[in-house]
Amino acid sequence: MNHSVQHSRLIQIMVLSALMAFTSLSTDIYLPAMPFMQLDLQGNIELTITSFLIGFAIAQLVWGPISDQIGRKKPLFIGMILFVIGSVGCALSETIYQIIFWRVIQAIGACTGPMLARAIIRDLYDRVEATQMLSTLTIIMAVAPIAGPLIGGQILKFTSWHAMFWLLAMIGLVMFFCLFLLPETRKKSDLKITIKQAFSNYKYLFKKWIFIRYVLALTAFYVAAYTFIIGSPFVYISYYHIEPQHYGWLFSINIIGLMLMSFINKKLVKHVHLHVLLKYSSMLAMLAMMTLVILFFSHFMSLITLVVLLFVFFSMNGVIAATSTAAALDSVPEIAGSASALMGAMQYGSGIISSILLTLWRTDSAESMIVIMAIFTVLSALISMLPHHEK
């Protein structure tokens, strides 16, 4: 591989990583501010995450088929513009209803990033290379959920939460210009299908068990992951009385585990089948959460045991997300855009389930977060252990 090709690939990796990181950055940056935003806006602040995830999930189902029909880059450019507009709207919001509305607009734009980054990877690489590439992107994009809460916590020391959304608007503007560095990966010969035909792909995908089983395993795991993301600020800050600026460090520990497992997974996929990796990583996550449930209800759980076992759980995301995504998209390479959209809609839409369950089951301890996480981690593992049949 010559120098110019290596340089071009490095640029692609950096831009795709940034696109993949859009979701986590858009939410994680204001996690430390959630208790304060709730007081300021006089409303249930979890709804700002719910509304974002609803917009994020539904919009992908529209953008996916469109990208299969008109290409990957045009939807990305439109998405970045909408993200910037939504971020500015959030920064200027004075009521809970205003910020909920602008979070939906922000999400409609943000969802094009990770969804089309996955589709571009499937356009360019085969099954094993795609998994390695996704693992590489996961390692790089993990900077966002580490940096997000840390930056948010520091911003709170000097100014208000509004500044966090001004920062997101600036990042979106920079990303708009970075998109010019990406090639159009959708072949012209593949652009002959109509939008109507593209949307009919969803019916086909729901009937294709090899595809949908990977999607369901990932979705169940992400219900658990979003339960942690949404519930942890209140558990750590309100229940354990951790300072908001220090919450970011506790959150970051989990992302370091994710990065480590993504690096290991990149090596393992050369020698171990994707389905086997998915099964054992899901089982390990289940074991961690079942242990946490036992410790909690036997009153042996401390902040340290909570942090350690959540670290094990979250680390498995580095294997589960990459292997399930690559295996699912590999089963339907001819409609990767629509498949990535459906997968993304269910993956990130899972956070809607998390926020609703946490809202309905409010406790003054970690009980609701731990139990919901355990239930869906077990479900994910059970789906992953179902018999595997090659296409």
From TrEMBL:
<feature type="transmembrane region" description="Helical">
    <location>
        <begin position="368"/>
        <end position="386"/>
    </location>
</feature>
<keyword id="KW-0472">Membrane</keyword>
<feature type="transmembrane region" description="Helical">
    <location>
        <begin position="76"/>
        <end position="94"/>
    </location>
</feature>
<feature type="transmembrane region" description="Helical">
    <location>
        <begin position="100"/>
        <end position="121"/>
    </location>
</feature>
<dbReference type="Pfam" id="PF07690">
    <property type="entry name" value="MFS_1"/>
</dbReference>
<feature type="transmembrane region" description="Helical">
    <location>
        <begin position="45"/>
        <end position="64"/>
    </location>
</feature>
<protein>
    <recommendedName>
        <fullName>Bcr/CflA family efflux transporter</fullName>
    </recommendedName>
</protein>
<feature type="transmembrane region" description="Helical">
    <location>
        <begin position="12"/>
        <end position="33"/>
    </location>
</feature>
<feature type="transmembrane region" description="Helical">
    <location>
        <begin position="247"/>
        <end position="264"/>
    </location>
</feature>
<feature type="transmembrane region" description="Helical">
    <location>
        <begin position="341"/>
        <end position="362"/>
    </location>
</feature>
<feature type="transmembrane region" description="Helical">
    <location>
        <begin position="276"/>
        <end position="297"/>
    </location>
</feature>
<dbReference type="InterPro" id="IPR020846">
    <property type="entry name" value="MFS_dom"/>
</dbReference>
<feature type="transmembrane region" description="Helical">
    <location>
        <begin position="303"/>
        <end position="329"/>
    </location>
</feature>
<dbReference type="InterPro" id="IPR011701">
    <property type="entry name" value="MFS"/>
</dbReference>
<feature type="transmembrane region" description="Helical">
    <location>
        <begin position="163"/>
        <end position="182"/>
    </location>
</feature>
<dbReference type="InterPro" id="IPR004812">
    <property type="entry name" value="Efflux_drug-R_Bcr/CmlA"/>
</dbReference>
<feature type="transmembrane region" description="Helical">
    <location>
        <begin position="211"/>
        <end position="235"/>
    </location>
</feature>
<keyword id="KW-1133">Transmembrane helix</keyword>
<feature type="domain" description="Major facilitator superfamily (MFS) profile">
    <location>
        <begin position="1"/>
        <end position="391"/>
    </location>
</feature>
<keyword id="KW-0813">Transport</keyword>
<keyword id="KW-0812">Transmembrane</keyword>
<comment type="similarity">
    <text>Belongs to the major facilitator superfamily. Bcr/CmlA family.</text>
</comment>
<keyword id="KW-0997">Cell inner membrane</keyword>
<feature type="transmembrane region" description="Helical">
    <location>
        <begin position="133"/>
        <end position="151"/>
    </location>
</feature>
<keyword id="KW-1003">Cell membrane</keyword>
<dbReference type="InterPro" id="IPR036259">
    <property type="entry name" value="MFS_trans_sf"/>
</dbReference>
